[in-house]
Each structure stands twice: as C-alpha cells, then as structure tokens.
Write a structure and sequence with these properties.
The protein is an alpha/beta fold. It has a single domain, classed as Rossmann fold (3-Layer(aba) Sandwich), CATH 3.40.50. It is built from six helices and 15 strands. Strands 1, 4, 5, 6, 7, 8, 10 and 12 form an eight-stranded mixed beta sheet that branches. Helix 2 packs across helix 3. The protein is globular. The structure holds 1-O-pyrophosphono-5-O-phosphono-alpha-D-ribofuranose and uracil.
Length: 208
C-alpha cells in the first residue's frame, strides 16, 4: 500500500488558509500554490538516492553527495502547471513531462487529451503534480499512462486531497506514495473537495 504523508508545517498551514479563501485573487493564489509546493518538496524528495562525490573546497578535499536518480516532474494539465515552476527552481536538472486530462463534467471521469514524457522516464524518479486529488480518477489515469511508458518509480504530490481520492490511488497504484499539504473531509455532490479551495485550474488561470 502506498504511503500517505500529509506534510505539516506552520508556514503550510498559514498559506493554506489564505489559499482556500474565496477572496484570494489569482496572482496571490498562484504564488501560494508554488510556495506550498516548495515547502513540501523537501519531504517528497527525502529518499532520493545519492552517490558519493568528492569535492575540493578552497581549504580541503571532502566527501559530498550528488543526486543519483534524476527526477521527472509530470504536471497533470492544466492545474498541475501551477506547481511545476516552483519545483523546477529547486530541482533544475529535472525533465518535465505533461499529461493532459480533464474531468468530464457529467461523469466526473478523466478524459485524456495529451501525453508527452521524457524518453528516459524509466530511469527517473517521477513526481506527478496536481493541486487537487478529489475522486482520484485523474491521478490514477495519469499514473497509468506514465507506467505504460516504462516508469517504475512514481510519487504523487497534491496540495489538497479527499480520503476517496487517496483510497482510489492507493488501490489502483499500491506502489505510489502520496503527499498532500491537507487531507480534507470529503467530496460534495459535484465531486468537489470539501472544504477544498474550489476549482484549482480556474483559480490559477483566472477562468472563473
Ligand atoms: C481538476 C484537478 C485534477 C482533477 C481532480 O482538473 O486539477 O486534475 O480535477 O479530480 P479527480 O481526482 O476527481 O479526478 P480538471 O478536470 O478540473 O481540469 P483542469 O485542470 O483543466 O481545470
Ligand atoms: N478539481 C478541482 O479543481 N477542485 C476540486 O475540488 C475537485 C476537482
């Protein structure tokens, strides 16, 4: 069973409260998504394997370390784009893939419209990015596509999740660990997260 980690930190709690506020404007919403994602990144990447690397400082030679398994960041379009910029700043060697999915408004089931991944995806630690984990349909489908293209090491990083989405991903992909900034109460009749923050894509891109 994939592990669920809710990353707890006072800065995340503070920023989450502003993010959820319906009055928070697009610019601030976008900045907060990036900042929260950045605060989560240390935890999400905590177990990246290292290789020994000798380094000569101006004073002496010493043993250092470099990341051994490189990272692929895969935002789920479109809301996942709100996270990827922040992570690229701190993991500049990461390659970026894109999976395009939207939820059918009637069925709430994911519909794929785009998938382009780094060709060496099977050698990389993949981090799938999406602010929202609601029913889990989109994340589970995105992970399916990524696995079909050979990836074996995959983590899912979201900002807000519902218990239903966590369960769906854990059942579909028991090898994938999930990271959230908040585990919310559940879903409403339209499969929106409660209390959540509304439609993340609309709030990021101003399409309300
Ligand atoms: C949102 C969100 C997730 C998905 C979560 O995307 O960004 O991808 O819904 O819901 P689920 O867990 O029930 O699948 P949406 O379909 O609204 O598309 P968008 O990012 O283009 O707005
Ligand atoms: N997608 C969103 O953007 N928000 C939700 O609450 C659920 C799915």
């Amino acid at each position: 069973m994939g592990k669920l980690t809710v990353v707890e930190h006072p800065l995340i709690a503070h920023k989450m409260s502003i993010l959820r506020d319906e009055k928070t404007p697009v610019k601030e919403f976008r900045e907060l998504i990036g900042e929260i994602a950045l605060l989560m990144t240390a935890e999400v990447t905590k177990d990246l394997p290292l290789k020994k690397h000798m380094v000569k400082t101006p004073i002496a030679e010493t043993e250092g370390a470099l990341i051994e398994r490189q990272v692929a960041l895969v935002p789920i379009l479109r809301a996942g784009l709100g996270i990827v910029d922040a992570l690229m700043k701190i993991i500049p060697a990461a390659k970026i893939g894109h999976v395009g999915l939207y939820r059918d408004p009637e069925t709430h089931k994911p519909v794929e419209y785009y998938c382009k991944l780094p060709t060496d995806i099977e050698q990389r630690q993949v981090i799938v990015l999406d602010p929202m984990l609601a029913t889990g349909g989109s994340a589970a489908a995105a992970i399916d596509f990524i696995k079909q293209r050979g990836a074996t090491k995959i983590k899912l990083m979201c900002i807000v999740g519902a218990p239903q989405g966590v369960k769906a991903v854990q059942e579909a992909h028991p090898d994938v660990d999930i990271y959230l900034a908040s585990l919310d109460e559940g879903l409403n009749d339209h499969a929106y997260i409660v209390p959540g923050l509304g439609d993340a894509g609309d709030r990021l891109f101003g399409t309300m």
